[in-house]
Design goal:
By secondary structure, the protein is α/β, with parallel strands linked by helices. Among the domains are: about 150 residues, Isoleucyl-tRNA Synthetase, Domain 1 (Orthogonal Bundle); about 100 residues, OB fold (Dihydrolipoamide Acetyltransferase, E2P) (Beta Barrel). The protein has a six-stranded parallel sheet with strand order 3-2-1-11-12-7, with helices on both faces. Bound molecules: 5'-O-[(L-methionyl)-sulphamoyl]adenosine. The site of 5'-O-[(L-methionyl)-sulphamoyl]adenosine has 19 residues, from helix 1, helix 7 and strand 11.
């Protein structure tokens, strides 16, 4: 037998500086769905997650709570492990950067860098963002704040060890250019090349002396190793590196590092350079996904808008939360979490489409065949179509999963769910049952429905793992593992007739949206109330209505309320599954924004990158196809529908106001 193909997937290791929120769950659930899908298709998977426990931020948080850092992180790590258990995360290894298997390896790596001349000692003087644990040059700051998180930076001046990044920059650029899959999605690749590699890489300070919660530099104990060097190496130390472990040989290089967009720089510049210095192959893919935002922007403690995942899981169950996270937002782009969208997904997709399909089917088998599955037989309406769709769906999903597009994979699966529901409506079993001569045909229809449910249940395994066993139990194949795997999706008609089916619990009881919204808002969702208020304000009649000659005109003050600026398009791609929409990232001076615009029929994404356009920056954000659009790009359209972007005559600093 051919040896099993391997697949190594990682999540970022989380800072245990506080409890995690629903945004953190997004990456881990995504990684789990990929890991489970790869296992389902027969690969030998290694799925790594863990915690990034050192650094100044954690030390300060612990101090603020009057605890030793180790005691402080232990409690949060227990909480995180419990969260992953509640969300059915099937990691194979959980690494903590405080474990000796890691700290000893990091010291060995640091020593090797030093001995081979990649690290030298000097003095660091510059800016540091403690929440991001990130060094910045003066010119990189935005309004004197951290360009990644917008929080204040601190001036630090200390002796430090420096890594010669510049030595490897050309090799890295060549690697990125020759391997288009290495940084995904492509917009993130352009950002790394244009903003960091092309302007020239500075050497990186890789040690700190002003606090001690870190891995000590083995030959200079005044220093602790910079937390990002410490953290990034977890992906290899967990496999036993630098020892020659079987696991390392089997799984390195990683197939995919899943990370959030704000840490792409660390993973696609520093990490590959460290690996080059260690003479190791680079990971095959680094995928930087977007953020899960709230309607009023980022989740943060200070805004008091954190969504506690444990509360959601306890109320709606882990499968519902997993489904929502995987289905709602195309992976890669920013998306908005709303209670309403979650409840709608539960009621529409899970309770109506899936849950009803199972209960309708089983009710009919119980009523007309005493719960005994009839034999396949005479052709009914749409048999062939249903069968071929079921047989095609696994491959369609596999293709989407290879591109890490879970929402597209789930859409393909729901096409089968909906087609199966339609098969019931097309064949009206309750009418067939009235005519005894159609008993055999009725039996065939029911057999096909149950067989389609078998396909659906197997394909649901990676996404909502608690549901398939419930379906198998009800369709009577609970103990028959041979019918529950990927191989069993190659053939239609495998369920043996005569099996006993038995309808029991509903898969997803329907929710009362109004009641649930109240419960969710009661959970501290202040921003939803403020959003409602803004809607009401919008409905109110405009003050100072003008009559006569000035009717329909705006005053200068009203005009001034519009914040129109020059924006530079820094990234652009098509929104999957639409033919009109483009997702753009624009630089508007002090910040970057995501905009969804109906430009795809008029411009190719590549044509737009680098262009300067006019942009309305204070338009209320909206959600289009689950994606957050924060502003509007202005364009002119003629009567024939030809469209052209409005722009400035000469290049000017992004963010320049229009007046
Ligand atoms: N410890 C570093 C990672 C080191 S990896 C070698 C770190 N930790 S973190 O806890 O701050 O963030 C971990 C991950 O959670 C990041 O990928 C980040 O993008 C992700 N998310 C944090 N908030 C998020 C959302 N609101 N939405 C989506 N992902 C979010 O960075």
């Amino acid at each position: 037998m051919a040896e099993k193909q391997t697949f190594y997937i990682t999540t970022p290791i989380y800072y245990p500086s506080d409890k995690l929120h629903i945004g953190h769950c997004y990456t881990t659930v995504a990684a789990d769905a990929i890991a489970r899908f790869q296992r389902l298709t027969g690969k030998e998977v290694h799925f790594l997650t863990g915690t990034d426990e050192h650094g100044q931020k954690i030390q300060r948080q612990a101090q603020a709570k009057g605890k030793e850092p180790s005691e402080f992180v232990d409690e949060i790590v227990d909480w995180i492990k419990e969260l992953w258990r509640d969300l059915d995360i099937t990691y194979d290894d959980f690494i903590r950067t405080t474990e000796p298997r890691h700290t000893e390896a990091v010291q060995a790596i640091f020593t090797r860098f030093y001995e081979q001349g990649d690290i030298y000692k000097d003095k660091y003087e510059g800016w540091y963002c403690t929440p991001c644990e990130s060094f910045w040059l003066e010119r990189q700051l935005q309004d004197n704040k951290c360009p990644d998180c917008g929080r204040p930076v601190e001036m630090v001046a200390e002796e430090g060890y420096f890594f010669r990044m510049s030595k490897y920059a050309d090799r890295l650029l060549e690697h990125i250019e020759k391997n288009p899959d290495f940084i995904q999605p492509p917009s993130r690749k352009n950002e790394m090349i244009n903003n960091f590699l092309k302007p020239g890489l500075e050497d990186l300070c890789v040690s700190r002396t002003t606090f001690d919660w870190g891995v000590p530099v083995p030959f200079d104990r005044k220093h602790v190793i910079y937390v990002w060097l410490d953290a990034l190496t977890n992906y290899i130390t967990a496999l036993g590196y630098p020892g020659k472990s079987e696991q390392f040989i089997k799984f390195w290089p990683a197939d995919v590092h899943l990370i959030g967009k704000e840490i792409v720089r660390f993973h696609t510049i520093y990490w590959p350079i460290f690996l080059m210095a260690l003479d190791l192959p680079l990971p095959k893919k680094v995928f930087g996904h977007g953020w899960l935002l709230l309607e009023d922007g980022k989740m943060s403690k200070s805004k008091g808008n954190i969504i506690d995942p444990k509360v959601l899981i306890a109320r709606y169950g882990s499968d519902a939360i997993r489904y929502y996270l995987l289905r709602e937002i195309p992976f890669g782009a920013d998306g908005v979490f709303t209670g309403e969208a979650l409840l709608k997904r539960i009621n529409t997709d899970l309770a109506n489409d899936l849950g009803n399909l199972l209960s309708r089917t089983l009710t009919i088998v119980e009523r007309y065949f005493n719960g005994v599955l009839p034999a396949p037989g005479m052709a009914a309406n749409g048999d062939e179509e249903l069968k071929s769709l079921a047989l095609e769906t696994p491959q369609k999903m596999a293709k989407s999963m290879d591109q890490l597009q879970f929402s597209t994979a789930l859409m393909a699966l729901w096409e089968l769910v909906r087609r199966t529901n339609k098969y019931i409506d097309d064949n009206t079993p309750w009418d067939l049952a009235k005519d005894p001569s159609k008993k055999e045909l009725l039996g065939a229809v029911l057999y096909n429905l149950v067989e389609s449910l078998r396909f659906i249940a197997v394909l649901l395994k990676p996404y909502i793992p608690r549901t398939p066993p419930k379906i198998w139990r009800q369709i009577g194949i609970e103990g028959d593992e041979g019918l529950q795997n990927w191989e069993a999706l190659k053939e239609w008609g495998l369920i043996p007739p005569g099996s006993n089916v038995k309808r029991d619990e509903d898969l997803f009881p329907r929710l009362d949206i109004k009641k649930e919204m109240e419960a969710l808002q009661g959970g501290g969702r202040e921003q939803q109330k403020s959003a409602q208020k803004t809607d009401k304000q919008k409905e109110a009649p405009p003050s100072g209505k003008q009559k006569g000659l000035t009717e329909g005109m705006v005053t200068f003050d009203e005009f001034k309320k519009l914040d129109i600026r020059v924006a530079e398009i820094i990234a652009c791609e098509k929104v999957p599954e639409t033919d009109k929409l483009l997702r753009l990232e624009v630089d508007i001076g002090e910040e970057k924004r995501q905009v969804i615009a109906g430009l795809a029929k008029h411009y190719q994404p590549e044509e737009l990158v680098g262009r300067q356009v006019l942009f309305v920056a204070n338009l209320k954000p909206v959600r289009l196809r689950g994606l957050l659009s924060e502003g509007m790009i202005l364009a002119a359209t003629d009567k024939e529908g030809n469209l052209t972007l409005t722009t400035v005559e000469e290049r000017i600093a992004p963010g320049s106001p229009i007046s």
